[in-house]
């Protein structure tokens, strides 16, 4: 659900940056209605502002959350907050990150395999 000042975080493993882009591509009907991306459909997300979505694919997978989130908007704030939220850190290596800003994910689906690509929801924090 849209919520100003919140950011929701997913990590995953995808085959390529092109595949990540394909999974995150949203579209619109001729009437202007939002058609969710493959990613959004699998996580039950009906609508979000694609203009404030950030995502990155890394050639080398990592379990270092600081490294995975470096360079994203508000990284100085969100790294600390997600690190505190995930006290034990990441136990697996991931090569993709998806951040939805101004969005508080509240669905119960925490993991999804999308056409041989895997994503895990890690949580949502306030960034402002």
UniProtKB/TrEMBL annotation:
Pfam families: DUF4284 (PF14112). InterPro entries: Imm22 (IPR025560). This is Immunity protein 22.
